[in-house]
Target: IclR family transcriptional regulator
Amino acid sequence: MSQTVDRALTILPLLAEGPANLEQVAVRLGVHKSTALRLLRTLHEHGMVYRQQDQRYRLGARLFALAQQAFESLDVREIAHPHLVALNERCGHTVHLAVYEDGEVVYIDKVDSRYPVRMYSRIGKPVAITVAAVAKLLLADLPEGERRALAERLDYPAYTPRSTPNAPAFLRELAVVRERGWAADFGGHEESINCVGAPIRGADGRVVAACSLSAPNVVVSSDELLALLPVLRATAETIGAEYSGKPLSAQ
Amino acid sequence: MSQTVDRALTILPLLAEGPANLEQVAVRLGVHKSTALRLLRTLHEHGMVYRQQDQRYRLGARLFALAQQAFESLDVREIAHPHLVALNERCGHTVHLAVYEDGEVVYIDKVDSRYPVRMYSRIGKPVAITVAAVAKLLLADLPEGERRALAERLDYPAYTPRSTPNAPAFLRELAVVRERGWAADFGGHEESINCVGAPIRGADGRVVAACSLSAPNVVVSSDELLALLPVLRATAETIGAEYSGKPLSAQ
DNA sequence: GGTCATGTTGCGGTATGTGCAACGTCCGTT
DNA sequence: AACGGACGTTGCACATACCGCAACATGACC
Model:
């Protein structure tokens, strides 16, 4: 809508690929050097880009600050965290929390064996949206039209032989997931990793987030993982209840 | 420099404080609603902001992606990481890596006891720039004028009685740090936490990053921590050497 | 000292962003 | 049901602020 801002914002993912000098930016944007310079200067003033000694630009530290703050203002995460830790302590496996936003699924929390950590390392990376259990749960709840449109527009990388191959298969899987209320990924992303997930619902029943348990199949068989479903689903429901405004439910 | 972009970027930290609706954004920006709307739409198209069900805007998931990618393209971090892990395995304490950028100091890596993790949780948060050992190291190496200007413009929060109280004290401390080549923070940020740090220098001798060891003084006395200085400094030098283009030095 | 590559500056034309006012839409209220 | 208020949205005319150009620094390399 706004040409100038549009161009400026286009610079950011461009620099995310790696540092670039003025001319490279100008060429990639399809604008004159002076125009690119003005945009970069404005971005620089806001700390969004940084200029290294060799004068090339790269993304700036302010992005970390913003991402961090964006993160902390996600109230689902805040509410869910202690429950996820409890779940982890009970069964020992890796716990993930994810949300859907404008065609993307992002992990917003992770608890790993015995060591609670917000594993930002997974955040932002292209989540395996076509295979991850949490992605299935979040997409399964989208309105029919949006779900279909999104499924058509996705790529279906064959991470493993069990990866979801195409849109029709994905939509069928989503229908199943929606029907039964939980999702799984048995080696669809990494051959040896299994995963089960459950939806977290808000007051209106919409899925606001999803959580999952992951474990390598050399440690835990898929059956053993499935046996943990009741605990996982109970956790998800507790979180949903609290999120919906029953803070002192099963205290 | 560019009014439109400037306004658009101003929206981001504003939303970082919490969700806001169109009118609030317009008022804070001092522009007409329609103008704010256009800016927000452009930001939205780029995933920088997200519109929740109640139509209020908040920061979007794309920020995570950008921060993540910015992160991975920091080559100091990449080079340093294995050395930091080795250091941690050797002495067991928490290891930090930080860089300076445009008046800010940010942690870009962390290794905690027996569990290597990029502790993104600290990134973006205002680092205790006036007391942290790594901050002292990075600021001590700035050109005289910039160092002085920055010191004047900083706040000096009294985290503890040992926190750096004001600009003159800070500049004196920086002079000491620069002279002797290492820095410490004994309870200047948190009463019970001690910390020693060493500079990582590039080929031209400039400090490109700094690393540190932290430990609670109930576990390790400050003397014991100081005894680890040689190991820490050796690590820092190894990283600096490799970063300067001697990849196969002390293999 | 010359040449090349790259970043920077000043300037006029006009595309582009701006504010205004009218219109939708969704609430809650009587 | 009808009304009213609060917000978000749209179309438009004006002029601002952005754009590309071309000339000018700057610095590296030979």
In short: Chain B touches chain A through 52 residues (CB under 8 Å).
